[in-house]
């Protein structure tokens, strides 16, 4: 059995979930709680020091752990329908996410996605520091009840810790937004040159992991209306960026069309 350790509102986790769902790989979800869940995650990864993060896919049958969205997507892509009888219900059956000859291009898109997501995360967390409602949404209900009036300070400390972890506060808001805008400008240019005959256009001749990773960047412009990303209303407000939304409305529309065709219409969200 496969188990995905992920965060419901995280674009990084959504990259992994979408890849697994697109390939028809069956798995169960387990929500990861930052800070609270870190000691257990370190034990799972056998990594006492350094940065640890999710998504993480646990393959208990083969006693292995797969870290990160890209490696999870590669794993999902190897689960061919031809192996169904050997591997049981976890075998994949959807279209390949890494078409032959596309590996290098997809890795480049993933790297661009990581740069943009890091900038978007910084912008959203900096906004969250000044939004009590969004901070409250970061604390699970049971823990919030236990902490009482301390819930907001604890949530703020967690956000500040994440900013320090990724050294996000050392770069200005303007620089973060400029980096994200530059990635969007390149994405727009690539879509305009695309040879895809599909609608919406895809970055490669067919839908691939490249589209999944670049679509997630738009989460930090406007969160998509999809059951696959569970984000509270106040956090949605912090994730959104009206400046970038007014500059790249075509990309938001492209992302929404991708979700409609390749995500929401094909794979209902399973309960967390």
What secondary-structure arrangement, pairings included, does this model have?
Elements lengths: L1 E5 L4 H12 L5 E4 L6 H8 L10 E4 L4 E4 L1 H9 L6 H4 L15 H26 L3 H6 L3 H7 L3 H15 L7 H21 L15 H9 L15 H7 L2 H6 L1 H16 L8
Parallel strand pairs: 1-2
Antiparallel strand pairs: 1-3, 3-4
Helix pairs in contact: 1-3, 1-10, 5-8, 5-9, 5-10
Could you give the order of strands across the largest sheet? 2-1-3-4
Strands, count: 4
What is the string of SSEs from the N terminus onward?
EHEHEEHHHHHHHHHHH
Structural class assignment: alpha+beta
What percentage of residues falls in helices of 4 or more residues? Answer: 40-55%
Rg, nearest Å? 19 Å
Tally of helical runs: 13
Sketch the major β-sheet: 4 strands, mixed
If you had to describe this structure to a student in words, what would you say it looks like?
The protein has a four-stranded mixed β-sheet, covered by helices on one side. Helix content is 54%, strand content 6%. The protein is built from 13 helices and four strands. The longest helix has 26 residues, at 103-128. By secondary structure, it is an alpha+beta fold.
């Amino acid at each position: 059995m496969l188990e995905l350790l992920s965060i419901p509102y995280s674009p990084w986790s959504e990259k992994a979930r979408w890849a697994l769902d697109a390939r028809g790989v069956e798995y169960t979800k387990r929500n990861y709680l930052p800070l609270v869940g870190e000691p257990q995650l370190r034990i799972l990864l056998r990594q006492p020091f350094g940065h640890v993060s999710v998504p993480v896919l646990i393959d208990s049958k083969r006693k292995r752990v797969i870290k990160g969205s890209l490696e999870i997507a590669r794993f999902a892509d190897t689960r061919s329908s031809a192996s169904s009888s050997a591997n049981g219900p976890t075998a994949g059956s959807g279209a390949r996410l890494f078409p032959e000859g596309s590996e290098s291009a997809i890795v480049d898109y993933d790297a661009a996605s990581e740069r943009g997501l890091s900038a978007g995360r910084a912008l959203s967390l900096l906004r969250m520091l000044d939004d009590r409602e969004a901070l409250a949404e970061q604390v699970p209900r049971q823990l919030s009840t236990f902490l009482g009036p301390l819930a907001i300070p604890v949530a703020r400390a967690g956000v500040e810790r994440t900013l320090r972890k990724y050294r996000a506060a050392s770069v200005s808001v303007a620089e973060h937004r400029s980096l994200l805008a530059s990635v969007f400008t390149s994405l727009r240019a690539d879509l305009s040159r695309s040879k895809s005959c599909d609608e919406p256009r895809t970055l490669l001749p067919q839908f691939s992991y490249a589209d999944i990773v670049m679509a997630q960047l738009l989460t930090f412009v406007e969160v998509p209306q999809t059951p696959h990303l569970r984000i509270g209303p106040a956090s949605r407000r912090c994730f959104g960026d009206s400046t970038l939304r007014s500059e790249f409305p075509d990309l938001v529309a492209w992302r929404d069309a991708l979700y409609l065709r390749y995500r929401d219409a094909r794979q209902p969200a399973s309960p967390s």
